[in-house]
């Protein structure tokens, strides 16, 4: 098999595993999954806000899901490693899911977005941007609204290195609402913020 086809096949499998685990661990504050190939097998690292709900009593749930992954996706020796997200309000995927859950419950999207802008900044982020798109606010046509607080890099090295980006969806009667969350956790060390004294 050509390298390109193998790469695409692996990417598809990774996406399928991610979607599978996202559904399984929705109530645990699921963030994201990393898949690492090792000489001993495949390490699947799941980042969640509440690892206790994932692991279950005596680790039984982890064992069950590991076996399910093995059968469903053909991994020879999968190892499921559950890790806790220390600060969920600085994780774009978790914040996005919380926004989606609130919208699905009927909370006004503007109220939800503004609430999380403040909470994420209070948690220590440099900046946050939330984009919500679809038939929002009772309108017939789809539109996108942007909410922003603080500084968020959008291109170049800083955007790739320092900005955590998450995508999710809320499903309501009017249709699917797309949600993108961008959180900039820290400023580049190269940037020095100077404070100038104001002459009296």
Overall description:
- This protein has 200 residues and is α+β, with helices and mostly antiparallel strands.
- The chain has two domains: 3-84, GMP Synthetase, Chain A, domain 3 (2-Layer Sandwich), CATH 3.30.300.20; 89-184, 2-Layer Sandwich (Ribosomal protein S3 C-terminal domain), CATH 3.30.1140.
- 38% of the residues lie in helices and 30% in strands.
- The protein is built from six helices and seven strands; from the N terminus they run αββααβααββαββ.
- A hairpin with a 2-residue loop joins strand 6 and strand 7.
- Helix 4 packs antiparallel against helix 5 (109-122).
Indicate the topology:
Blueprint: H1 3-24, E1 30-38, E2 41-48, H2 51-55, H3 60-73, E3 78-84, H4 92-104, H5 109-122, E4 127-134, E5 143-150, H6 156-162, E6 163-172, E7 175-184
Parallel strand pairs: 2-3
Antiparallel strand pairs: 1-2, 4-5, 4-7, 6-7
Helix pairs in contact: 4-5
Q: What's the quick description here?
A:
The longest helix is centred in the N-terminal third of the chain and has 22 residues, at 3-24. This protein has six helices and seven strands. A hairpin with an 8-residue loop joins strand 4 (127-134) and strand 5.
What distinguishing features does this structure have?
single chain; 6 helices; 7 strands; disordered C terminus; alpha+beta; GMP Synthetase, Chain A, domain 3; 200 residues; Ribosomal protein S3 C-terminal domain
């Amino acid at each position: 098999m050509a390298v390109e086809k193998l790469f695409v096949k692996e990417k598809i499998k990774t996406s399928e595993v991610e979607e599978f685990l996202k559904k399984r661990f929705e109530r645990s504050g699921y963030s994201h999954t990393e898949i690492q190939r090792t000489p001993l097998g495949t390490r699947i690292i799941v980042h969640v806000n509440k690892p206790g709900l994932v692991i279950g009593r005596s680790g039984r749930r982890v064992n069950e899901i590991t076996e399910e992954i093995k059968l469903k996706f053909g991994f020879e020796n999968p190892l499921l490693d559950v890790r806790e997200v220390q600060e969920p309000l600085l994780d774009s995927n978790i914040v996005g899911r919380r926004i989606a859950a609130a919208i699905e419950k009927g909370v006004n999207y503007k109220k939800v977005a503004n609430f999380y802008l403040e909470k994420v900044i209070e948690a220590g982020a440099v900046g946050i941007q939330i984009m919500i798109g679809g038939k929002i606010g009772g309108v017939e046509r789809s539109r996108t609204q942007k909410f922003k607080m603080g500084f968020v890099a959008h291109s170049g090295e800083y955007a790739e290195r320092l900005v955590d980006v998450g995508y999710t969806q809320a499903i309501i009667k009017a249709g699917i609402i797309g949600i993108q969350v961008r959180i900039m956790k820290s400023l580049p060390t190269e940037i020095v913020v100077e404070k100038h004294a104001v002459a009296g």
